[in-house]
Amino acid sequence: MAYVGFEEVKVGIFDAAGENIEEVFVWKDEDGGTVNMTITGLEKEVTEVYASNKRVWISKKGTGAVTNTFETFNPPQADLDKILGRDVDGTTSWVGEDTDPPYVAMIAKTEDVDGTPMYFALTKGMFGQNEIALNTRTQETTPPTNTTLSGSWQDRDIDGKGRTFGKHIGTEGYDAFEALVFPNVPVLPEG
């Protein structure tokens, strides 16, 4: 299946118990505009058993170590500080020994070649920002740099099953899908 564009992401922050979403951010356009995202680890490495000089059994049940890399344009600083677990003092944010990112969930919105909306969800994990790149200005117009975040994801109980990743196609049933990914959130922002 082909994907066209990358319109927005919704990022939800879990409470301290990691059970309910307390806050949801929508990033799009000039406020966290989505540039690209790669999700890896959806496939578990094969486990094999050999006997009598041949492979006699294989299994690929489950997922591998699910991670994502997400590039965004100009995410709101307050949102970024929250999802990265930074200590904030006024207009200063700190990263150090007490940095402890909260659990988050996310839904990325794209569409197929026919224009049907598609949604990719990662159900519970943590974001990090491993690198900040600064570039000198040139005589030409210097575009701003994007922010790259990396996420590590785990299973979360959804309808009695461990779920790490989900995909929903179309608008029908989307609200129920979103409610499963962002449990017990009071009111979701439009977007």
TrEMBL record:
It comes from the Bacteria. InterPro entries: Maj_tail_phi13 (IPR006490), Phage_TTP (IPR006724). It holds the Pfam family Phage_TTP_1. NCBIfam families: maj_tail_phi13. This is Phage major tail protein, phi13 family. It comes from Jeotgalicoccus aerolatus.
